[in-house]
Every structure is written in C-alpha cells, then in structure tokens.
C-alpha cells in the first residue's frame, strides 16, 4: 500500500514508517484486546499512515465513532480514544466514561491526542471527574503526513484562516515541529529560503529549535539541499483560477479529501484512492485535461496490443510468460476503464457553455483586460443566483488582478452580493477584505501588470499537449508561486528584487551549519533537491507545475512538496466564510 | 463616560519609594503613620520575608477567631458565587489584615512589586488570600470609592458575570467600563458577546468603549451574533440594537438595511399568513406559499412581493415599488426579479408592461436595461408560449443573434420575416425544407417566394 512513497527522489516511506512505529508502540503500551473510539475527523489522515490490518495485528478488535451516551458493548480490555485536543470532544468522552457500566467487566481507558496534548483538555476531563479513569494519556505527533512519493501534507484545513484572518499561529508552530522531525530523519537542510511573514516566523522557530537541541545533532547525510518556505498570501491569485490539469479538475469538480475522491453514483468506483500507486494515474494526472484524451487512447492501444500477444505465443514458455503478466494487464485495463469514465464525466463539464464563459472571464482578468470595470458576466451570475462561492472567486480574482478595486466598483459588487445572497454575508466579505483577497484600491498604481510581465505569468502560446513551460497547467497562466520557485533555482531571486518588494512580506535566506563531514559532495550533473513548503495551502495544479520542473531535462532541481493543506479556490474561499452552524440549520 | 480607571498594579507610582534596608523594621511605623504614607521612607524587602510574615501572623493570632465570625455576616452574598473559596476555619490572613491597616498591606505589596525583586511567593499568596475575600459587591464599592481593588480573582465565568451585574447595578459608568475591559481581556469574544446580548446596559457601555478605541472588527463580531438568535422578533430587536454601533459608513448602511428588511418581513409574514389561512385571496389559494419569507435575502423578498403583492400601491410595505425604493435596488436587478416572478405566473400582460415606455408624442416603445436576448432566455425558462417569445426575439437588434435565437426557440415567423426583409431567397428555400409541408409556415414561405414583386 505504500510502495509508491519510496519511488521518488526522497524516500518518504521512512517518514511513514517512523509514524507507524510510534503508533505500534502506543498500542502495545495498552496490553490486551482493544477497541478504538475515533474522532471521525482523524480517520482520513490516519488512513494515509496505517490500514486496519496494522491495528488488528496489535489486538484492535473493534472501532467506533466518538459520540455521546454509552459506549457500544465490546468484549475488550482497553478502550482507546483517538481525538483532536478539543474541549467539546472531552465532554463527549466524559459522558462515555461516566455512563460505563462498572459492574460489568471493567475496561481500561486511554487517550491519544493528535497531534498534541492539551492542558486545557486534561483540565476539562478533571472538572468532569474522569481524568483519573485514564491509564495512559499520550500524544501522537502527526504533523507531516506522507501523501504521495513527493508530497507531504499536514491536512490542516483551517491553517490559512487561522494565520491570516485570526492571527492564530499555532499551525506555524506545528509546521516548524514537523520540519524538525523531517530533519531528524533526513538530515539538516543547509539552506532555507523564504518569502512572507509566516515563512519568516517558521524559519525563526526552526533556527531556535535547532539551537535548543544543539546537543543532539543527527549524523545523517542531508537529503535536502534547500528548503523554500512560501506564504500563501504572496500568491493569492493562483488558487482562485480554475485548475486545468486532470487531477486539478477532479478536485475542482468532485473534491479530493485525504487522497480519496467520491464520484457520484452510479459509477461503480464511487470512492477511489488517487495516488501514484496507480501507474496510469501517475502518468496522466498532471497533464492538461486537453491532453488526457490522447494519452488514454494511446494507453488503450498498448494494452490491447499486449492482449493480442496471446495469439503470437507459440511455445509453452511464451504462453507461460504471457499468463504471468495477465494480472498486471488486467489491473491496467480496469484502471483505464475507470479513468476513461471519469474523463468523460469531466469532459461534459469542460465542454459546457458555463465552464467556457467562466474560464474566459478568468483569463481576461489574468491578462489584465477590463479589470477596472463592472464585469457583466459576474453581474449575470449574481442575477441568476449562481453559487455564492463562484461569485466570490471571480470578484476576488478581479480585485487581485487589479491590485484592488475602485471603491465605487467594490461597493457595487458588495451591494449586489448582499442584496441577492443576504446581508449576513457582509461578515464573509469582511473576512475576504482582511485577508487581502478583496480590497479597495489605494492611491498606489496597479502593480499587477508589472508582476505579470516580469515573472512572465501569461504565456500566449501555452502548449497543452507537449508542454514546454509550467503555464500549461492553467492553459496560459503560469502560477506565480511556482515562478518564484523556478527563478530562485535559476538565476536566483536577486534578478527579481523589484517584484519581490511588491509582494507582501519579507524575503530571506538562512544557512544552517552542518556537522563536519556531512557536507555533500555533488556528482557532476547531479540534481539538487529542494523542499517547497506552502504555508496556507497548495493546489494540485501548482504541484503539477513543480513536477514538470523536476522532470525537465536541464532543470537541475528536483522538488518535494509540503503544505498545510491541499486546496482549491472553492474549499479555500469556503474556509474563509463566516457561517456559524446556527445559520446552516 | 470613561476615564482611565485606577488599577491595582498601575497605581504603584503613588509609592515612589526609596531603596532602603529597613523595611521589616518599619512596618510598625508605617501603621502608625498611615495617614501620611507618602512621606514615609519605604524600604526594600531583602531581609527575611517568610520570617517576617510568620511573625505578623504570630503577632495577631489571638485576634483571629473573633473576626472570623464577624466576617460571615459581612459577606452575605458569598453563597451566590459558589466558586469563591469559603474558608471554614477562621484562620485567615485577610481577616488578620482587616484588623490592621489595610493600607499597610497594600503599600507593602505594591512596593515589593514596584521593586521587581525578591517578591516571595508567600507574599503573593498573602495578597491573593487577602483580596479573594472581596465579594463582587464589595469590589464594586471599592472601585467606586477609588480604593485599591483587584479583578483578577474573578476567574470563573460565573464570577465574572456576577461582577458585571453588580457593576451595572451600581450605575457607575467608570466601574462598568473597567469591568468590561477586564472581561474583554479575559474572556473569548464569542462568550463575552453571548453574555452581553442579555445585558443591554452593559452592551451599550461596551459599544461605546469599542467606539472610543476604534475597534470595528469587534463590532462585526457583535453583529454576527444575530445569527444565534432564533426568534425573529428577538432577532429584529437585536439588530435594532446594532444600529447604534459605530460601524464604518458602509457596514452601517448594510446593517440598517438588514434591520429594515427583517422588520418588514415580520409584518408581511404575519399579514400573509393570516390572509392565506382565511382563504380570502385567490393568489394564495392558487399558489400556496412554500416557505416563510422571514430571513430571506432582499432579492428573494422582492420576488415574493412581485409574486403575491403585485400592483399594490406604493404606500404599502409589501409593494414591489416600495421595496425597490427603500432598498435602492438597481434597475437591472429589479427588472430581472420582477420579470421572473410575473413570467412564473404567466402574467404576460405584466411582462409586456415592464418594457413599455411612452414617449412625449404618445408612441409606445419597448426598452430594457438588459439585452433582449437575455429576456428571451428568461421567458423561455418560464415556459412562455411562442407567441410571447417571438415578440421579444423580434426586439433583438443583432440580426445573427436574432435568427439563432429564433431557430433555437422555433419562432418560425421571425425567421421567415427576417429572411424576407433581408431579401435572402436562398435561405428561405433552405428553411422551407425544414418545416412541414402541411404547416402554415410552409404556405407562408411559398407565398413570399412566389410573390414576384419582391424579388
């Protein structure tokens, strides 16, 4: 289940193994048969670390979802709660423990906090009078989860909102901790680059933590040559644009959660895991959707040719060899069938008039056409009561591409939105303004055209089938964040000082001393390895662009990607909306 | 309304004490000279703090029990605050110090804090023990009298709220504000706002305070709380309360509109519910209301009004014209909403009237702030008959667009007439092949083609 993690430049399976080892150790601490009570939110991220079989090997016999009232009957010695440190969950746990029938076989209770223990939670358990009932209270540090062979995610949904809206930097602390764990396993990263306020904070924390652990330096040859920390608010534009890679579109249309995607029935593959373990998927996911059809049909020809070979097999040996390949061929065929169906579903959407109109407007904004006027398409969408998130994505994009909207224009959009969708959304609009996604234009002139030209964010002749530039992932738009990464590798940021100053937050470079003897001697032509960390989220299209750079023949750098969360424009805007539960019901 | 309030650790400047090593020895003299404490030379605590305190405890041990009994009577409210520690034994340092001068202790401790050194834990404990006996009532009284006080000991939410209620009862703006500042510091905003909803006076003080310090952000959070109010009348009242907040001009307009909207919705809802159940109006019988109009956006409300209250005079709250004016709805939005509602009812005459304008000569003409091709789309979505549709297709200016729309919605007459006017014989012949032989369209094309005068 995890072989795909070790194929890449950096063997991320080491990280996964370390996480599994820790999990096993905790399970063994609670001797005897056990049942796990899950905070439902955690099952997704845990699924990336371990399957049920691992738990079973360590005598986990039952699994329940955490809910109030009495725990279900289970003839086990231990009950273990796997929970996030949240007060409301503590109350549920206390309810479970209190209503436990004490006369009937007594069971031992344990808690595993993910990712950190919390004094506040323990205090709450104490107030409820149940703290003493727990034999083990432990924490399971799940900061960076290996998501794929070149991808790590913290799966922390609220990170952007917390950092940029609520000024709560807890997730930055977790990021720094996660990077320390990574360095313990893969060696000290000698160079740290960064752009943005949060990046600066994380780098500072890392350097401080390193000083504090100065005594326990790991004697591991560094695997990463450099780390690049990027704030999401340095590039607010990219996630707003509709992703046009295969994987990006799957995420835009259906949504990928914890590496799984739910397609609507009646498809038989209603829930599917999407990663590089599937050969075909690894081949096509980063392609522009317009190139996917050709790739699929080419693959179909190869597979049917392989099946045809059975006719040419004459000798016993040849037949034997053919049979031995059958399982692999059959898997390939069913994989092909699945992706052909998915591609057809997506094609229905991408060929629709609505999709085309929306994309046209996006591209107009990104190329700077009429970004200072009322856009009639947006107006029409509001009049038709299209989903609010769609409207917000477009209005924010117009604002970002115009370095803010004229007060009159901004007021007009705001009024139309509030009148059509309800006044309570002024809270959401306010949040968008606070994060800079929506803003009134100040006296300074619009600097977006300068940024666009200097970084070549728009490429007229993007080749979708056989790309020669990262702009293929958005059919013309080259993601700003990835351009920054590309320029850093060659020729270096000094060449774009002016543009860097226009983008928010400081840019910096730090060096970490390596223990003597651990300096890497690079072979002639050997690529550098850079870890790019997106603070506040990254899109699948950006990942595709980085993979494209890794594969470029004369690129010279291979990238490993880490992030707080995989996002798209919709999930991102949603996380910034202000809709307390009271309203939803 | 609000002036900088004295706070326990900020009044230390009263005691600008010089350093000396005679602190312990001078305690007695301090007591004696309490009225002129500013002149007293005060000294550092570098001696034996523990010993000194235990010395004081021993010194006064004999007088403790009697004061302990008195104390129970002087704290009648303590039972309302269950989390306050109740000292079962009369052996309390605070009662000890009541015997002595209160100023002695405060000056001592403040001095120590001022020196920022060697404040022994015991001293802090002593202080805490001392102040922890003040009830909310007593604390508020002390605040009013300008005496030293401490709010930090009100730790639980319940205690804090008792303190707030006590402050409100005292009607002293300064005290209320001081308590609010403490609550703002020590409570999460959500909890504070939740509690303030039910305490109007405190809320007003808080708003004023926020205004003074210019915290717009918190105002919006306060506004957000309306979402937690279920009952529509209470929600309306809550929004009314929000009206006086010093929002930015922009936000203020929106909040005002929100309040006005809900106020109207409540009136309309009550009225329509009654009319509907009495069975007086046909429109409700024919199209029973699917949901209440309460808390719907303004555009939805306008749609509702165009659906059920069309043609009402401008003066009524529920008439489309009144809503349009009150909420400054743009021409486009108004037209689209109105069109949607009237088309849904198949009131084609009303639809027609929406676009008809008369010029000064009395000629009528159809005008629209939105392209007629979009009007056609909307009408078609509402299943308008071809006779109605073709009137609007005809109004589309762009000929190509007109023909493609006409083809899409099968408005044969429009197509035939357009080709005729364009004198495009070829297209007419092609089109003849597309309609049925027995149809009137076919005959019409034949007629035009055979009319030799035209060609």
Structure at a glance:
Chain A is 46% helix and 13% strand. With 585 residues, chain A is of the alpha/beta class. Mean pLDDT of chain A is 89; it is low at 580-585.
Plain-language structure description:
The complex is a heterodimer of chains A (585) and B (455). In chain A, strand 11 and strand 12 (271-273) form a beta hairpin. Chain A is globular, with a radius of gyration of 26 Å. In chain A, helix 4 (87-98) packs parallel to helix 5, helix 13 (353-366) packs parallel to helix 15 and helix 15 (388-401) crosses helix 22 (569-575). Chain A is built from 23 helices and 15 strands. In chain A, 46% of the residues lie in helices and 13% in strands. In chain A, the strands form 3 sheets. A 7-stranded mixed beta sheet of chain A has the order 6-7-15-14-9-8-13, sandwiched between helices. A 5-stranded parallel beta sheet of chain A has the order 2-1-3-4-5, with helices on both faces. Mean pLDDT of chain A is 89; it is low at 580-585. By secondary structure, chain B is mainly alpha-helical. Chain B is 61% helix and 1% strand. Chain B is built from 25 helices and 2 strands. A two-stranded antiparallel sheet of chain B has the order 1-2. The longest helix of chain B has 30 residues, at 249-278. Chain B is elongated, with a radius of gyration of 40 Å. Classes of the chains: A alpha/beta (585), B mainly alpha (455). The interface between A and B is medium-sized, with 24 and 28 residues.
């Amino acid at each position: 289940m995890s072989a795909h993690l070790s194929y890449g430049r950096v063997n991320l399976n080491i990280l996964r193994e370390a996480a599994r080892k820790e999990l096993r150790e905790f399970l063994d601490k609670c001797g005897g048969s056990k049942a796990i009570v899950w905070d439902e939110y955690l099952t997704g991220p845990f699924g990336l670390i371990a399957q049920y079989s691992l738990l079973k090997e360590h005598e986990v016999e039952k699994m329940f979802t955490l809910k109030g009232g009495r725990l279900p009957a289970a003839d086990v010695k231990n009950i273990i709660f796997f929970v996030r440190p949240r007060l409301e969950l503590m109350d549920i746990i206390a309810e479970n423990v209190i209503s436990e029938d004490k006369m009937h076989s007594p069971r031992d209770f344990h808690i595993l906090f993910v990712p950190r223990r919390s004094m506040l939670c323990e205090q709450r358990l104490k107030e409820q009078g149940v703290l003493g009932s727990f034999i083990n209270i432990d924490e399971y540090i799940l900061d960076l989860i290996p998501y794929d062979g070149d991808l790590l995610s913290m799966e922390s949904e609220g990170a952007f909102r917390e950092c940029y809206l609520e000024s709560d930097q807890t997730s930055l602390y977790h990021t720094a901790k996660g990077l320390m764990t990574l360095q313990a396993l893969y060696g000290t990263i000698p160079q740290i680059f960064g752009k943005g306020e949060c990046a600066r904070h994380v780098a500072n924390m890392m350097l401080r933590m390193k000083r504090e652990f100065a005594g326990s330096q790991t004697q591991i040859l560094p695997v990463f040559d450099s780390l690049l920390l990027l704030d999401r608010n340095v590039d607010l534009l990219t996630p707003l644009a509709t992703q046009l890679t295969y994987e990006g579109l799957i995420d835009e249309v259906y949504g990928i959660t914890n590496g799984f995607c739910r397609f609507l029935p009646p498809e038989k593959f209603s829930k599917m895991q999407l990663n590089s373990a599937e050969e075909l998927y690894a081949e096509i996911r980063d392609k522009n959707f317009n190139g996917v059809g050709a790739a699929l049909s080419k693959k179909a020809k190869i597979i049917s040719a392989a099946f045809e070979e059975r006719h040419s097999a004459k000798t016993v040996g040849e037949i034997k060899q053919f049979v031995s390949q059958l399982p692999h061929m059959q898997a390939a065929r069913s994989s092909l069938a699945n992706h052909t169906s998915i591609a057809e579903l997506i094609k229905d959407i991408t060929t629709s008039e609505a999709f085309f109109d929306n994309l046209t407007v996006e591209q107009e904004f990104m190329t700077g056409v009429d970004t200072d006027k009322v856009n009639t398409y947006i107006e029409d969408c509001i009049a038709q009561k299209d989903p609010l998130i769609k409207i917000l994505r477009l209005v924010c994009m117009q604002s970002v591409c115009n370095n803010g909207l004229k007060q009159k224009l901004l007021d007009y959009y705001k009024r139309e939105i509030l009148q059509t969708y309800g006044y309570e959304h002024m809270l959401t609009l306010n949040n968008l303004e606070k994060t800079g996604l929506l803003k009134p234009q100040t006296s300074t002139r619009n600097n977006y055209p300068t940024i666009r030209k200097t970084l070549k964010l728009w490429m007229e002749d993007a080749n979708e089938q056989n790309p020669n530039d990262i702009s293929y992932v958005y059919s013309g738009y080259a993601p700003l964040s990835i351009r920054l990464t590309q320029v850093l590798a060659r020729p270096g940021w000094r060449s774009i000082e002016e543009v860097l100053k226009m983008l928010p937050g400081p840019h910096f470079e730090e060096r970490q001393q390596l223990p003597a003897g651990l300096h890497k001697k690079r072979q002639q032509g050997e690529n550098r390895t850079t870890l790019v960390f997106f603070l506040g989220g990254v899109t699948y299209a950006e990942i595709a662009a980085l993979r494209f750079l890794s594969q470029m023949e004369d690129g010279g750098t291979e990238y490993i990607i880490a992030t707080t969360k995989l996002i798209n424009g919709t999930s991102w805007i949603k996380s910034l909306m202000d809709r307390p539960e009271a309203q939803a019901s | 309304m609000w002036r900088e309030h004295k706070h326990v650790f900020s009044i230390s400047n009263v005691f600008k004490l010089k350093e000396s090593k005679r602190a312990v020895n001078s305690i007695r003299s301090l007591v004696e000279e309490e009225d002129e404490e500013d002149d007293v030379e005060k000294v550092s605590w570098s001696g034996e703090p523990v010993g000194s305190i235990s010395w004081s405890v021993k010194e006064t041990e004999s007088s403790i029990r009697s004061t302990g009994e008195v104390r129970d009577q002087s704290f009648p409210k303590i039972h309302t605050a269950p989390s306050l520690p109740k000292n079962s034994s009369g052996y309390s340092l605070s009662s000890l110090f009541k015997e002595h001068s209160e100023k002695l202790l405060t000056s001592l401790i403040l001095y120590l804090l001022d020196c920022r050194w060697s404040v022994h834990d015991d001293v802090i404990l002593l202080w805490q023990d001392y102040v922890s006996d003040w009830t909310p009532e007593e604390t508020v009284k002390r605040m009013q009298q300008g005496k030293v006080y401490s709010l930090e000991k009100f730790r639980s939410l319940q205690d804090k709220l008792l303190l707030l209620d006590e402050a409100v009862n005292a009607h002293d703006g300064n005290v209320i504000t001081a308590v609010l500042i403490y609550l703002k510091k020590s409570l999460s905003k959500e909890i504070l706002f939740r509690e303030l909803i039910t305490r109007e006076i405190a809320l007003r003080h808080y708003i004023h305070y926020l205004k003074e310090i210019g915290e717009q952000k918190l105002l919006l959070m306060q506004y957000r709380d309306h979402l937690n109010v279920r009952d529509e009348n209470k929600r309306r009242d809550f929004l009314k309360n929000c009206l006086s907040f010093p929002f930015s001009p922009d936000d203020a307009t929106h909040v005002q509109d929100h309040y006005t909207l809900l106020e109207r919705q409540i009136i309309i809802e009550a009225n329509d519910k009654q009319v509907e159940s009495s069975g007086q109006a046909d429109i409700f019988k024919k199209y029973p209301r699917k949901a209440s109009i309460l808390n719907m956006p303004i555009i939805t409300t306008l749609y509702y009004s165009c659906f059920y209250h069309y043609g009402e005079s401008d003066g009524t709250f529920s008439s489309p014209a009144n809503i349009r004016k009150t909420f400054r709805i743009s021409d486009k939005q108004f037209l689209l909403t109105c069109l949607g509602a009237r088309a849904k009812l198949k009131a084609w005459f009303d639809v027609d009237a929406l676009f008809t304008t008369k010029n000064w000569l009395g000629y009528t003409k159809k005008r629209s702030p939105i392209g007629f091709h979009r009007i056609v789309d909307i009408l078609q979505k509402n299943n308008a008959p071809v006779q109605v549709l073709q009137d609007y297709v005809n109004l589309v200016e762009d000929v190509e667009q007109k023909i493609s729309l006409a083809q899409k919605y099968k408005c044969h007459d429009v197509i035939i007439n357009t080709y005729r006017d364009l004198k495009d014989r070829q297209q007419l012949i092609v089109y003849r092949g597309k309609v049925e032989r027995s149809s009137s369209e076919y005959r019409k094309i034949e007629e035009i083609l055979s009319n030799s005068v035209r060609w």
